[in-house]
Write the structure tokens for this entry.
Amino acid sequence: MVKGVKGDREVTLLLVEDEEPIADMLRVGFFYEGFRVEVVPGGRAALDFLDRDHADLVVLDIMLPDMDGFKVCERIRARGLDVPILMLTAKKEIEDRVKGLNLGADDYLTKPFSFDELLARVRALLRRSGRKGEAVVLSAGDLVLNVVTREVKKGDEIIRLTPTEFSLLELFMRHPRRVFTRETLLNRIWGYEYVGDTNVVDVHVSHLRSKLGDRPPRLIRTVYGVGYAFYPKE
């Protein structure tokens, strides 16, 4: 079975994002990672939520319809709340990033981004804040993946993976027996704005299987007409 160090309380993420396609993609992604996700479309709704409820982390877009993310971040900190804040910005100017950090944000990510990178940053912030013991070591039989050191071992052998291969394997190992479509894998690993053929998924899975020596019956199985699923050996 896949094993890891898990916390004993559901983590709540407050997602402040007014673009529905992005909000929906992130909500579904975080839900499947085991988070409780609350989505609000604007700054005032975010502040109202924090007045009446608890969040373990805020994912905050800068470009909002009622007040920008900088002002929201400033007001959250003015209320004495130490909740970690990760800002999403379409702006690449250094001044904007510095402004957000100076106002109390803990991290930022520039659009477009991959869900995998956002998830990694969220987990890192949660670990640093002590809000949850995340699963940092995953194992299936003699296959062991360490999220912190980004090391993969099969028995005593270290398996050298590319960042994309590592991300695919981590996703599979965190969700044993769940079937991922190629489109879902593209959104999660390559990013929601990726434009290209879904065959790129097949190529990377093939390389990953080769490096793992994954032979039938496979750990990473093809679900014909759908995608892939990870089946740990009992």
Remarks:
- DSSP finds eight helices and twelve strands in the chain.
- Residues 1-8 have pLDDT under 50 and may be disordered.
- The chain has two domains: 12-129, 137-230.
